[in-house]
Amino acid sequence: MQKRVDLHVHTNFSDGTFSPKEVLSYASKIGLSCIAICDHDVIDGIPPAITLSETYNVEVIPGIELTAEKQGCEIHILGFYINWQDGQFQKKLAQLCRQRIKRMQDMLDKFKALGMPLNMDEVTGIDKEGSIGRLHLARALHKKGYTQTVDEAFKKYIANGKPCYSSKINLTPEEAIAEIIKVKGVPVLAHPAVMGKDDFISSYVKHGLMGIEVYHSDHNPLMTARYEKMAKDLGLLMTGGSDCHGLGKARILMGTTTVSYELVERLKNARR
Ligand code: AMP
Ligand code: FE
Ligand code: FE
Ligand code: ZN
User: Fold this and answer.
1) Whole-model pTM?
2) Would the CB of 134 count as within 6 Å of ligand 1?
3) In the Cβ-directed half-sphere of 61, how many Cα atoms lie within 13 Å?
4) Most-buried pick from 18, 116, 241, 271 (CB within 10 A)?
5) Atom of ligand 1 nearest to the CA of 249
6) Is the minimum distance from the CB of 136 to ligand 1 under 6 angstroms?
7) For atom 11 of ligand 1, which residue has the closest CA?
């Protein structure tokens, strides 16, 4: 039987709803042989996932998804096989999480001004100093009855460019790539179709980008074909994953976008 792999999974240390144990248990239940834990700007889900890897017989790749911004565009950079134990890297992530809290406060102020008050406590995840993001906020808005759905919270208020969006992100994609390289990770551009700025890609390659997330739950077949070709033309690695957020999205996505184990071997060979 072919080994299937999901190279983009979140835990509740960022904006997923599954604990590392629930992630591993679900991965094992659906027959995945390997997953990459790629939380937004935080590594805390990695050690417990690695500890449980043997019990559930699911290989765990330590990863990250760094949020960056360029010309008002959000750009996510994945890092695979990062040395997550690096102290400087952990300090940098703590700084990014502090910025996330400030950005959340900024967004909460905007909601307050619109007559939709929410406290920080209502939006924080399991760790008050951890990685807090718009999916937490969207879920809180929905729970409070301010919106009918989580999706509506994004569409009406907090998607990029909407009235309560805050763009306080102080990392450029080039810096994100450099941070990943510093901890010997393989930097890969996440869900390029969601970012929608293909003309940036070749400049990232000059800065050390090594791959593109060609396969993603938000990519349709046309998009996938476009990025497969781009990866081939630019000599980049191809990765793929579901971007599962547990029950945070409309359904559990884990395993809905998978790649073959051969891509993992290529990633391993690309490690520094
Ligand atoms: P942040 O890290 O705070 O910028 O928030 C990004 C998160 O919001 C990612 O997990 C995205 O997948 C999620 N997101 C963006 N748009 C939507 C949407 N329309 N519905 C649900 N989640 C979304
Ligand atoms: Fe997320
Ligand atoms: Fe992302
Ligand atoms: Zn993600």
Assistant:
1) 0.96
2) yes
3) 29
4) 241
5) 21
6) no
7) 135
List pLDDT tens digits, range 25-52: 999 999 999 999 999 999 999 999 999 9
Lookup: tokens for 29:
């239940």
Whether ligand 1 lies within 6 angstroms of the CB of 152 is answered as: no
Kindly list the structural domains of the chain, giving each domain's residue range(s) and its CATH number in brackets, ordered by start. Answer: 4-83+183-270 (3.20.20.140)
Cα 133 from Cα 169, distance rounded (Å): 12
- d(CA 7, CA 151) in angstroms, rounded, equals 24
Q: Which of 170, 34, 154 is nearest to 98 (CA)?
A: 170
- Residue 67 Cβ inside 6 Å of ligand 1? The answer reads yes
Q: Which residues contact 133 (CB under 8 A, 6 or more apart)?
A: 14, 15, 40, 100, 104
Q: Answer for the pair 84, 50: CB distance below 8 angstroms, yes or no.
A: no
**Contact call for residues 204 and 177 (beta carbons, < 8 A):** yes
Residue 154 Cβ contacting ligand 1 at under 6 Å: yes
Residue nearest ligand 1's atom 13 by CA: 135
Pairwise CA distance, residues 245 & 218, whole Å = 13
